[in-house]
Design goal:
Layout lengths: L3 E6 L1 H9 L7 H4 L2 E4 L3 E7 L24 E7 L1 E10 H6 L5 H26 L7 E3 L12 H16 L5 E5 H9 L1 H10 L4 H4 L6 E2 L2 E6 L2 E3 L9 E3 L5 E4 L13 E6 L3 E7 L4 E14 L5 E4 L5
Parallel strand pairs: 2-13, 6-16, 7-9
Antiparallel strand pairs: 1-14, 3-4, 5-15, 7-12, 8-9, 10-11, 12-16, 13-15, 14-15
Helix pairs in contact: 1-4
Length: 304
């Protein structure tokens, strides 16, 4: 076994891990983060008592009518996701800035850990079992006469009638986004409603369409086995998620899903004498869970 010494939490590298952001990854915009204290605990699943109209009229001097409400509960169990990398002494000794290799290593470790979370969240929300309802458009969105707005309206109304809330966001996988912005009807709507020519200036859709926050999911992963020729593929397929998420994430708020995260990422650093190097190890403890299937609708297989 390698000789390991001075295992400790590296505060500077932990700060790097906490502040690390990858704009390609949108998992935390789909499932907002809720900080939790326990690795396993209960969370609330809300019923729909607030949608029932109660007789609230009272006579002068009478007491207000008392009503009851309750919640169902489910449990989450956080898993630890951790990776490490050895930085040889020769690399550290030859670096112009000896801290730079450790920072770069921390960022690469966090990218891989977060990429794994992205894949898990994508698989959850693109599964029709995890949404209130779903449908495949009869006319594909990259066809000659797509009916994109009608499909999105159907999705919005399905969420509204199932959960009693207006959906807030739409996830557009990268290739779907490209089909959407090339659609002549969508281009005309953008031309007359968005100040300036946003498609020419940024090449992208506006941040809001049809009153939905636009989340463009473009993460790529290598599906090949280790050592084999790389094979790159989209994590998000041609399924479009229309969903509701709470503006302020909390255990007692209705939303499609949450990341229950136990504390912030932690980075350990320790020396491995027999390998003549410094090991950097990043760790993240969390669970990704669907809270309310009724808060989401999935347009499946929208591209030809």
């Amino acid at each position: 076994m390698p000789t390991v010494s001075s295992v400790h939490v590296s505060a500077p590298l932990t700060n790097v891990a906490i502040s690390y952001k990858n704009l390609e990854l949108v998992g935390e915009r789909v499932f907002p983060v809720v900080p939790v204290k326990k690795e396993s605990d209960k969370y609330y699943i809300f019923r729909k008592e607030e949608l029932a109209i109660e007789d609230s009229k009272r006579a002068a001097g009478a007491e207000a009518r008392e009503i009851d409400w309750d919640v169902d509960t489910a449990t989450y169990t956080a898993e630890e996701y951790s990776l490490r990398h050895l930085i040889p002494d020769r690399i550290l000794n030859n670096a112009d800035d000896p801290v730079r290799p450790q920072i770069t290593t921390t960022q690469k470790l966090m990218k891989k850990i977060l990429l794994g979370a992205e894949k898990r969240i994508a698989e959850i929300v693109q599964d029709t079992a995890n949404v209130g309802s779903s449908a495949t458009p009869s006319i594909k969105w990259d066809g000659t006469s797509p009916i994109i707005e009608r499909n999105i309206d159907t999705a919005k109304d399905a969420v509204r009638t199932a959960a009693g809330v207006e959906p807030t966001s739409i996830v557009l996988p990268y290739k779907v986004k490209n089909a959407l912005k090339r659609d002549t009807t969508i281009r005309d709507l953008i031309r007359y409603t968005v100040p300036g020519d946003i498609l020419l200036r940024s090449g992208e859709l506006p941040p809001v369409i049809f009153n939905l926050e636009v989340i463009i999911a473009g993460a790529i992963r290598n599906t090949a086995n280790e050592g084999a020729t790389e094979s790159l593929a989209d994590i998000w397929t041609d399924n479009v998620l229309v969903f509701y998420k709470e503006e302020t994430p909390s255990l007692d708020a209705l939303t499609h899903g949450y990341i229950f995260r136990v504390a912030q990422p932690v980075v350990y650093s320790y020396r491995v004498d027999t390998r003549k190097g410094q090991m950097v190890e990043a760790s993240q403890l969390q669970a990704e869970k669907v809270v309310a299937t009724s808060c989401a609708y999935l347009c499946t297989d929208v591209l030809a």
